[in-house]
Amino acid sequence: MAREQRPSPKPATRPVRSRKAKAPASAPGPAATPPKAEMAQPPRSSYADALHRYEQAMRALQEHHYDRAAEALRDVLERFSEEKELTDRARLYLAVCERHLQPSPEPTTTHDRLYAATLALNAGDAARAITLLDDVCHEDPGHDQALYLMAVAYGLQGETQLAVPFLERAIEANAGNRARARIDPDLETLRSDAGVAALLQPPSADGGRPRTS
């Protein structure tokens, strides 16, 4: 009798372990958003107005309009006191303006008068120089520097006939003024006069001095 074949046992199956999906290796995360840069604050309207007024003052100061400069600087100090940097500078330059606006005392010494006359000549104010030098010449008729500057002042005014006698006296008082007058640019116009040209010639061998016509 044939044996009944039994089905061969199936091999035991191992339970399949579920594998967890691995996260991508070191996946880069979203880049951190950098903090927003602080926006530059627009300049305050008061600062812009103060700066504009301050610049007006500086232009007036450069042009030697001290009264206008002082007025603008006072305006900055009164209206824009919160702008410390500008007001500090405005206060400094206001002091400069006020010094220039104060009337200077009239010079009384010879040295001060000569200095003031030189400043007046440099500024083109020959009339002021003559007034100052006349006081020096009145007190010291032989002061060679005052006499020389009188010649310069009258020469700048085109008054050759008045300038020549002062130049003669200046050279008589100090022979070195002859060489000085030959190269002085302030006497360039005066040197075109024949009498002045003769006066500026070196002395003759016998020590005489050329006479002017």
Short précis:
The chain has 213 residues and is mainly α. Among the domains are: 45-101; 110-199, Tetratricopeptide repeat domain (Serine Threonine Protein Phosphatase 5, Tetratricopeptide repeat), CATH 1.25.40. The protein is built from nine helices and no strands.
Structural commentary:
Among the domains are: 45-101; 110-199, Tetratricopeptide repeat domain (Serine Threonine Protein Phosphatase 5, Tetratricopeptide repeat). It is 55% helix and 0% strand. The protein has nine helices and no strands. It has helices at 45-62, 66-79, 84-101, 110-122, 126-139, 144-156, 160-173, 176-183, 194-199. The protein is elongated.
What labels would you give this structure?
213 residues; mainly alpha; Serine Threonine Protein Phosphatase 5, Tetratricopeptide repeat
CATH architecture of one domain: Alpha Horseshoe
Number of continuous helical runs: 9
- The name of the CATH superfamily of one domain reads Tetratricopeptide repeat domain
SSE topology string: HHHHHHHHH
Estimate the helix proportion, in percent.
55-70%
Q: What are the segments in which pLDDT stays under 50 over at least 5 consecutive residues?
A: 23-35
Largest sheet: none
CATH top level assignment of one domain:
Mainly Alpha
- Can you give the mean pLDDT? 82
Extended strand count: 0
Shape: elongated
Give Rg in angstroms.
Answer: 47 Å
Topology record:
Layout: H1 45-62, H2 66-79, H3 84-101, H4 110-122, H5 126-139, H6 144-156, H7 160-173, H8 176-183, H9 194-199
Helix pairs in contact: 1-2, 2-3, 4-5, 4-6, 5-6, 6-7
